[in-house]
Amino acid sequence: MNIFIAGGTTGIGYSLAKHYLSKGYWVGICGRNPAKVSENNFEKLQIFQTDVCDLSSISLALQQFLADKNSLNIFINCAGSYAEDVAGNISYEEAEEMLQTNILGTVNCFEAARKIMKNQKNGRIAVIASVSGILEYENSSLYTKTKRSVIQIADAYHRALQPFGISVTTIAPGYIDTQKLRALNQNDLSKKPFLINEETATIVISEAIENKRKLVIFPTKMKWMMKSLSLLPSSLLNIIMFRKAKWMKND
Description:
There is one protein chain. This protein has 251 residues and is an alpha/beta fold. It has one domain (2-248): NAD(P)-binding Rossmann-like Domain (Rossmann fold), CATH 3.40.50.720. It contains eight helices and nine strands. It has helices spanning 11-21, 55-65, 92-120, 142-161, 179-184, 198-210, 220-229, 234-248; strands spanning 2-6, 26-31, 45-49, 74-77, 123-128, 166-173, 176-177, 196-197, 215-218. A seven-stranded parallel beta sheet has the order 3-2-1-4-5-6-9, sandwiched between helices. A two-stranded parallel sheet has the order 7-8. Helix 1 (11-21) links the parallel strand 1 (2-6) and strand 2 (26-31).
């Protein structure tokens, strides 16, 4: 099998890459800074420098990866951007980065994979969203709004690509214990409920793709907590989520 992972040089993307490499598959990963992969000791791993915000960049990397291969079996988009948005404390540059990467980047990854898989009449595409994206309320953070957009974009592609034998799986995880999450929280994850490790998340995600699940929200406790919150009136949800965000940042 041939697997390509956008945003695969770190975190859950790189963990998924190692998972597929352990099965003997060919894996291509890409990111803005390939140097984040300090060593490549895998014979079947190819690393590319790309920007998901540039469709031609991601398309070229895919073409190079598939140059000596017959097909693209799985494409996973793990690329994402996050900036804190408590009480509107966010710069224009941070906001632009999230909008570009999380929304435009998602569309570009779908388009790059779609063009190849549509000709094959098969394939699997997966995208990493966030459990926060299942909540809809007026004052949700910009990050939450972008991840909700990711879920809706994936749903649209799921409908459009199904007739061509292409499955689309949306992954909406809670907190995963990655180096990035630790860096964002000064290595203190005590306020991250239902935290899971990368290995567990990798198994859940790979199984969801294998089984062609449409939407997977995990861990289970986080899933039901968020679904319960989604039943609340928007005004009350606004208050609860704002206070939660302030508490998590010790404000």
